[in-house]
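Q: A small favour: would you put together sequence and structure tokens for a protein?
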Amino acid sequence: MKKRIKHLFAGVLAIGLLAGCSANNNAGNNGEAANNAAATNNGAAATAEATQPANTNIDVLKISFVPSKDPDQIITTTEPLKELLKQQLGTQGYTVGDVQIDVGTTYEAVGEALSAGTTDVGLIPGGTYTLYDDGAEVILTATRKALSNDSDNPKDWNDNKPTTGLDDQQASYYRSLLIAGPSAKGQELAAKVNNGEELTWEDLDSATWAVMSTSSSAGYIYPTLWLQEKYGKSLTDLSKVTQSDSYGSSFARLAVGQADIVVAFADARRDNEEKWTSEFGGTGPIWDQTNVIGVTQPIYNDTVSVSKNSPIMNDELKKALQEAFIAIAGTDEGKEVIAIYSHEGYKVAQSADYDGERDAQELIRSMK
């Protein structure tokens, strides 16, 4: 079954050294002092030796990227990653002969390569990871600038407008929001939420919605999960739904009252703030004319995943790769490389972080 879905849907490891020594109870003071000095010297030597990473040779490290942008652009932009990885892994005792970077023909092709062990590392979205987690293991989640609000209570977003980016904080996930506009119905729903009242299914079904395609996490899948959790319904059960070709067109509909509710990623209003009045027909600031009426569960960012079947992969190398990517993201040159995917940094990831994505896959299967 999982194979069918795939084709349907494009700390620190420490080494401790325990040293023991026993003193001779019959030894004199000089002998005891000598023994203590020897123990100290031996202990210092052992500590120094333990801090030096053991050298491991890797002939070839293979890294694959998904084709989210032009493959030639990805190859050109990520070229410096080869030397950056060699340098960072070198500080951890790895001598890497060659780093090979390729771009898969499809997202699925990279997932298949990780499962087969023909590539060692893949930079892939969460959805691709969960489809291929029988052969891939997530080790890092990409981070981007955090927002000033991360509450799952929609009223909190409305009481603390506008939403801003935080320069000193990174987030490993984002949320999808259900946003009501300036239409009479939109204002009616927003008033209920801001008064602390629960919306009913009838409230939502009486509104006109603008959504994205069925493969969009923030614009379709996670809002559907939200509806299922709260009402046992999905977007397909709503009476009045229009699919937009972009988030911009959704907000254009919202601004002039053609839609009462849009679903979008959490900082979409920031992206469309200027166009709201200059192009979309809004009669006031977007923050004054819109309100959040629903907040989905977190949608985790892209992953750095490794192959469970790679002949060179083990726990030590996984840890080294985690530290290497995090360190690279902290350099100016590294930031330029990972910006190709809009990544700003990395955090250590757990498989459970992507359980929401697994729920999404189940949803997709039920919709087929």
Observations:
- The two ends are 12 Å apart (CA to CA).
